[in-house]
């Protein structure tokens, strides 16, 4: 394998770093705190939930080459994923004379901190927002804070601080990122790997391929390697289960995997596209944008990829059911070429996906929704934000006259894999799209699924909720007036 480099090179605050002694499992959080003594970044949960470890990571986006800064969870971000990025910690915010950044000052002025443990993470989340939005709405502030838990202050003072900080923009030279944006962008361009980086020996190594051809070569040589994209699943294998992941292949820097292409036929989304990057494209499918907004917090959405959500094969991943209902296909690639597959066929059994040795997921194709087709996805959780689905139902139908012409219904959380409700679909096909049809189709869920009891929901709850989601889809599809009429008729 061609080997141009044996070090990970990135910028940390205002210094360039080159590391040639990095283990696949080394996290950014440990590197900051233990090696660099940058202890402003805290460890709360070590699983991406609390936001105490939030830092910003700047990267050049795929083809546009613009430099974006995004909040990430340093606890589950691996050092091996940092090549050609700019990591910014809370220590970088204040001016050299000690003057605090407006975001930090507002947190003091508005009493946004008590014990202070969550504060550096909250400051970094608010700083990420401050950089991108001049006048954020309350909803935008709440979204930016979705992934930050504060156990003692309460969020009102923090939100007031965010509103006040938005108005404080002393000058471009004042802000550390604005001031250095151009030079950092040029530097990151130069740091981009043009050939594969390998650190370590034999199977005990981390590998950073420069492109998809390099990735295919690496996987042909190491078919049992762990592919690491956003690490929002793999990170927890390391921090919670202490699992080795070597050889680890970091793919988050591969520009080809981050493309989104739109045509009349539909969308082609690279497997390495993050939830945040996919939002603008997927929001065209009704309810998909709202669903994405409920995956993790902002940090997880900035790191986590649609490809990772599919490849992990979880029965409760949020993107497979809506993608299956929309008729998505995936493209798998290896050194031998590419292989397209309907997404629903990718999931074989619990923990078993149709991915052959040496293959990786390259892209997902999502067909356009024809005018007149109805589509919706509903996520059922115990709390609105930062929660994993108990179940998730996605529905798509088309009508001919008043009759159901096509129906695709897929669920997560109801079986060992994301799965279509084919008996329910059959019960709807050719029938008039009416409440009576829906009521009789509801019983077909019992043919399709035998859900399990677990701590998220009982089997009975899941079954009832699935049936009710079909009714909800029907009621929403007939519009508000028809619903009111229906309630009057019942009354
Ligand atoms: C706090 C928190 C909240 C979360 N909330 C949700 C939620 O609400 N809903 C939800 O669905 N998920 C949630 N997740 C799980 C996770 O964010 C998603 O599954 C995410 O999409 C995984 O993507 P990733 O890029 O981080 O994958 P990684 O962790 O990098 O990888 C996941 C798996 O996919 C494989 N893989 C990744 N990319 C490829 C590829 N291109 N080809 C082949 N294999 C590949 C990896 O080897 C691994 O097996 C949450 C995670 C955290 C930490
Ligand atoms: S320590 Fe809690 S999200 Fe990282
Ligand atoms: S100030 Fe104590 S946890 Fe937020």
UniProtKB/TrEMBL annotation:
Oxidoreductase keyword on record: yes
Classification via SUPFAM superfamilies: 2Fe-2S ferredoxin-like, CO dehydrogenase flavoprotein C-terminal domain-like, CO dehydrogenase ISP C-domain like, FAD-binding/transporter-associated domain-like
A Pfam family of this chain: Fer2
Keywords, alphabetical: FAD, Flavoprotein, Iron, Metal-binding, Oxidoreductase
Keyword RNA-binding: no
Domain of life: Bacteria
InterPro entries: 2Fe-2S-bd (IPR002888), 2Fe-2S-bd_dom_sf (IPR036884), 2Fe-2S_ferredoxin-like_sf (IPR036010), 2Fe-2S_ferredoxin-type (IPR001041), 2Fe2S_fd_BS (IPR006058), Ald_Oxase/xanthine_DH-like (IPR016208), Beta-grasp_dom_sf (IPR012675), CO_DH_flav_C (IPR005107)
Record-annotated FAD-binding PCMH-type domain positions: 199-371
CDD domains: fer2 (cd00207)
Enzyme class, first EC level, given as a word: oxidoreductase
Domain named 2Fe-2S ferredoxin-type: residues: 6-96
UniProt GO MF annotations: 2 iron, 2 sulfur cluster binding; FAD binding; iron ion binding; xanthine dehydrogenase activity
EC number: 1.17.1.4
Protein name: Xanthine dehydrogenase small subunit
UniProt lineage: Bacteria, Pseudomonadati, Pseudomonadota, Alphaproteobacteria, Hyphomicrobiales
């Amino acid at each position: 394998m061609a080997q141009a480099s044996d070090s990970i090179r990135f910028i940390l605050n205002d210094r360039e770093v080159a590391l040639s002694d990095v283990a696949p499992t080394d996290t950014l959080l440990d590197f900051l705190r233990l090696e660099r003594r940058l202890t402003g970044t805290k460890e709360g949960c070590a699983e991406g939930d609390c936001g105490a470890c939030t830092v910003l990571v700047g990267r050049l986006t795929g083809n546009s080459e613009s430099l974006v800064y995004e909040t990430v969870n340093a606890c589950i971000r691996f050092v091996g994923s940092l090549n050609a990025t700019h990591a910014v910690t809370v220590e970088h915010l204040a001016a050299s004379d000690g003057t605090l950044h407006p975001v930090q000052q507002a947190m003091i002025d508005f009493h946004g901190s008590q014990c202070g443990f969550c504060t550096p993470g909250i400051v970094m989340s608010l700083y990420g927002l401050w950089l991108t939005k001049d006048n954020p709405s309350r909803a935008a502030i709440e979204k930016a804070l979705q992934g930050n838990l504060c156990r003692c202050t309460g969020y009102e003072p923090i939100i007031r601080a965010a509103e006040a900080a938005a108005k404080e923009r002393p000058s471009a030279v004042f802000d550390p990122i604005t001031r250095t944006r151009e030079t950092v962008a040029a530097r990151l361009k130069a740091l981009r790997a043009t050939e594969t980086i390998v650190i370590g020996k034999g199977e005990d190594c981390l590998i950073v391929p420069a492109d998809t051809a390099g990735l295919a070569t690496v996987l042909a040589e190491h078919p049992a390697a762990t592919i690491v994209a956003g690490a929002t699943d793999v990170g927890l294998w390391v921090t919670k289960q202490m699992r080795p992941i070597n050889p680890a292949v970091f793919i988050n820097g591969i520009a080809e995997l981050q493309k989104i292409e739109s045509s009349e036929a539909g969308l082609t989304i690279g497997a390495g596209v993050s939830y945040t990057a996919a939002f603008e494209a997927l929001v065209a499918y009704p309810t998909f944008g709202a669903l994405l907004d409920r995956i993790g917090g902002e940090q997880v959405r900035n790191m986590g990829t649609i490809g990772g959500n599919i490849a992990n094969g979880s029965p409760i991943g949020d993107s497979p059911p809506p993608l299956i209902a929309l008729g998505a296909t995936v493209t798998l690639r290896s050194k031998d070429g590419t292989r397209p597959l309907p997404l629903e066929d990718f999931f074989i059994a619990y923990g078993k996906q149709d991915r052959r040795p040496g293959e990786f997921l390259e892209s997902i194709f999502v067909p356009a929704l024809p005018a007149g087709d109805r589509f919706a996805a509903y996520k059922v959780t115990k709390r609105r934000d930062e929660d994993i689905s108990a179940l998730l139902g996605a529905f798509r139908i088309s009508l001919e006259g008043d009759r159901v012409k096509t129906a695709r219904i897929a669920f997560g959380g109801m079986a060992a894999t994301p799965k279509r409700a084919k008996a329910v679909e059959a019960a709807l096909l050719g029938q008039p799209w009416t409440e009576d049809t829906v009521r009789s189709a509801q019983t077909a869920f019992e043919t399709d699924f035998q859900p399990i009891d677990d701590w998220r929901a009982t089997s009975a709850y899941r079954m009832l909720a699935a049936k009710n989601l079909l009714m909800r889809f029907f009621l929403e599809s007939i519009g508000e007036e028809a619903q009111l009429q229906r309630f009057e008729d019942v009354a």
